Amino acid sequence: MSLFKLSPLEITLKKGKEKIAGITAYDYNMARLAESAGLDFILIGDSASMVVLGHPDTYPITLEEMLIFCQAVSRGAPNTLRIGDMPFLSYQVSIESALLNAGRFIKEGRCHAVKVEGGIEVVEIVSALVKAGIPVLAHIGVTPQRSLDIGGLKARGKDLETAKELLDSALALESAGAFAIVLECVPAEISRLITQRLKIPTIGIGAGPYTDGQILVFHDVVGLFPEMRPKFVKNYIDGFKIFEEALKTYQKEVKEGLFPEEKHSFKVDPQILEALSRDD
Ligand SMILES: Nc1nc(=O)c2c([nH]1)NC[C@@H]1CN(c3ccc(C(=O)N[C@@H](CCC(=O)O)C(=O)O)cc3)CN21
Ligand SMILES: CC(C)C(=O)C(=O)O
Ligand SMILES: [Mg+2]
C-alpha cells in the first residue's frame, strides 16, 4: 500500500473514470482540513505569496518560505498526495538548479511531486525532473510567474495563435512525462479539446467544466480572501465574515465582562487563599 491515499500515477489513472478535486493548503491546520475532507490532492501553491504573506503577486515568495509551508502541510496531511509549487526562478535558471530545488521539495518539504509553470520552454526541465524520479504537474494557460511578459492574468487561448500554443504545449508536456496538467483561465471549449487530446488528466482553474479535475485556492473556497474574486472562484462560505463576526463578539464580551465565565477559569483551594492572606 502506498503511504498516501493517491499517488501521482493513480491521479493519472483517474482520467475518464472519476473527477479529481484538489485544493491548495499552506499550513498544518489547512492541511488537516483538506485531508479530513478527503480531497484527492493538496497543492502547496506559490499563491501563498498573496494569501498568506500578503504580497501583491507570486513573484516575491522564496524557496525557503515555500519549504516551510510544505513541511507544515506534510505534518497536517501525512496521507494525502502533496504537490509543491516551484516558485519564480527556482527552475528556470538551469536544469541543474531545477533538479536540486525540486529535490528540496521532496527531501525537505516531504512533497510527492512538484509543479512548474510554462509550456514548450520548460519541456526540457520537466523531462529532466521526471528522469530523476520526481513526478511533475505541468501548468499552462495563465501562468502568474509570467504575468510580466504575457500581460497580466487575462484568460489565454481566446485567439487561434494562443489556443494552438496551448494545445502544442500540453502535448509536449505530456510527452516529457508530466503526470497531469493544470489549465488556468482557458476558455471551456479549448480545455475540452485539450482534455480530449491528452492521455494525462487536465486539472482546471477557470477552465470550465470539461477538465478531468478542478483545483481552487483554499482561501477562495472558504471565502477568506474577499479582495480577490475572479469569475472562476466560488466561495462556499463567507469565511471572512464568519471569522470577523466571531472576533467582534469576542471583543464585545471582553469589554462587557461577559468573557471569561466561571467555566473558563481555574480554581484554587480556599485554604491556600486563606494561608496566603495570613502571611501578609
Ligand atoms: N486567492 C487566489 N486565488 C487564485 O486563484 C490565485 C491566487 N490567489 N494567486 C495566484 C494565482 C493568480 N490567479 C488569478 C487571479 C486573478 C485572475 C483574474 O482576475 N483574471 C481576470 C483578468 C485580470 C486582468 O485583466 O489582469 C480574468 O478575467 O481572467 C486570474 C488568475 C489564480 N491564482
Ligand atoms: C492556482 C494554483 C493552480 C496555483 O498555482 C497556486 O495556488 O499557486
Ligand atoms: Mg502557483
From TrEMBL:
Q: Where in the cell is it found?
A: Cytoplasm
Q: Which HAMAP family match?
A: PanB
Q: Which reaction does it catalyse?
A: (6R)-5,10-methylene-5,6,7,8-tetrahydrofolate + 3-methyl-2-oxobutanoate + H2O = 2-dehydropantoate + (6S)-5,6,7,8-tetrahydrofolate
Swiss-Prot/TrEMBL cofactor(s): Mg(2+)
Keyword annotations: Cytoplasm, Magnesium, Metal-binding, Methyltransferase, Pantothenate biosynthesis, Transferase
The UniProt family comment states: Belongs to the PanB family.
Q: Entry's PANTHER family?
A: 3-METHYL-2-OXOBUTANOATE HYDROXYMETHYLTRANSFERASE
- Quote the NCBIfam families the UniProt record gives: panB, PRK00311.1
Tell me the protein's name. 3-methyl-2-oxobutanoate hydroxymethyltransferase
Specify which residues bind 3-methyl-2-oxobutanoate according to the UniProt entry for this protein.
Answer: 46-47, 85, 115
List, from the UniProt record, the residues annotated as the active site of this protein.
Answer: 184 (proton acceptor)
